[in-house]
Write a structure and sequence with these properties.
The chain is α+β, with helices and mostly antiparallel strands. The chain is 38% helix and 35% strand. The protein has one domain. The chain starts with 8 loop residues before the first helix and ends in an 8-residue tail after the last strand.
Length: 134
């Protein structure tokens, strides 16, 4: 008696179905990964822009002692900054060095969704001559 080698039609159909399910699963996870990579890229870009803008603000000798600033990078992105005293010694007057808080929010629109990346830092600043501490 001779044994037959090869696969039956049913075995081929089952193997093809299993491979099809595996390929669909892989493609759906690839799509999800690409979407997540895009979001990470946007966040990474925002982080770099925020750090650069924060360095610019910290180094600016004309930065207001206390107040708000804002600007735009382009039509769909921009920034807002707030400055003000963080810690002041008692009876601090004009010319006194204090710790100044700088808060920065970089925002952008992507796919109709508003995103924000906040950043904050502190620096030593002098109370301006025209400003009297409360």
């Amino acid at each position: 008696m001779k044994s037959q080698r090869g696969f039956t039609l049913l075995e081929l159909l089952v193997a093809t179905t299993i491979m099809g399910i595996a390929v669909v699963g892989l493609l759906s996870s690839l799509t999800t990964s690409m979407r997540n990579a895009s979001r990470v890229t946007d966040a990474d870009r925002a982080s770099a822009v925020a750090r650069s803008k924060m360095e610019e603000l910290v180094a600016d000798p004309m930065l207001p002692f206390q107040g708000e600033l804002d600007g735009a990078f382009d039509a769909s992105s921009g920034w807002r900054a707030t400055t003000g005293p963080f810690e002041m010694p008692p009876k601090a007057g004009p010319g006194t060095l204090i710790v100044q808080h700088i808060g920065l929010v970089v925002w952008w629109e992507a796919g109709g969704v508003h995103h924000e990346f906040p950043l904050e830092t502190y620096r030593m600043a002098e109370i301006p001559r025209q400003q009297v501490a409360p």
